[in-house]
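Protocol step 4 of 5: obtain the predicted structure for the target chain.
Materials: sequence only (see below). No template structures provided, no constraints applied. The aim of this step is simply to have a reference model before the mutagenesis design in step 5. Sequence pasted as it appears in the construct record:
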Amino acid sequence: MKVEKYAGIDIGSNGVRLLIMNVYEKNTKKIYNKNILVRAPIRLGSDSFVHNEIKEITLDNLNSAMISFKHLMKVYGVKKYRACATSALREALNSKEVIEYVKQHSGIEIELIDGKTEADIIYKTQINDLLEENKGFLFIDVGGGSTELTYYYNRKSIFSRSFKIGAVRSLKQLVAETEWIQLKEFIEQSNINENTLAVGTGGNINTLFKQSQKPLGKPLSYTYIQEQYKILKSLTVDQRILEYGFNPDRADVIVPALEIYLFVLKQAQIKQILVPKIGLADGLVKTIE
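Step 4 output (structure tokens):
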């Protein structure tokens, strides 16, 4: 059996990730199995959202990560890859210079994608095993710089929209009040109801799900998320690191991230959220031709 290796590089607002997957065919269908996932805490959003550009030291760190990813892909024998950047790099005034610098020094070619494309990549490559006939699903992806909502009913995409509300942006108190209002109004005007099942993606909800020790496929309740949010909010960042074992760049953003999930769930009157532990990197691999 022929097995190839593909890679997806997710250049987010909080961290950058390299996912390498084994890809093979079974009954004319492609099968994907995770080989390795590497994450680097670059946090482009701290530059982009505050200073409107990527600073030299952050660019150097990003380039170093890309060089490392290039070497890892060579060692693992990766045949094809796709690298995409989201809101932080998209909004940086010097994004073109950053992309060109990384290409020249690491050889990695970066695509800038908008929120809708990001949602499409994540969800269109993942939904077949999750969606059911005659049922509504609200996908909630909370990143460092933006939140994407995508609603499916009867296996069809009904709407998708991106909001400039993210964990890093919120941590820096840079979310405009108008964004919260637009998010609330958007949910109110949709066809979402209490019978809709939410599906959460993003590093923070994945971390909370891991902490819950629930088996994959079992949803988290709104009440559970709210309880954990209150506990984590009462702790300092250092306490979250020591008591929960969070990475430093997860310990500070998990509280504002959970605030966003809770806000959406409350407005939509949804009481449970499924966490399939998928993300942009998975979708990138699965969109490689």
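Step 4 remarks: Residues 56-76 form the longest helix (21 residues). The chain has two domains: 4-113, 128-281.
Proceed to step 5.
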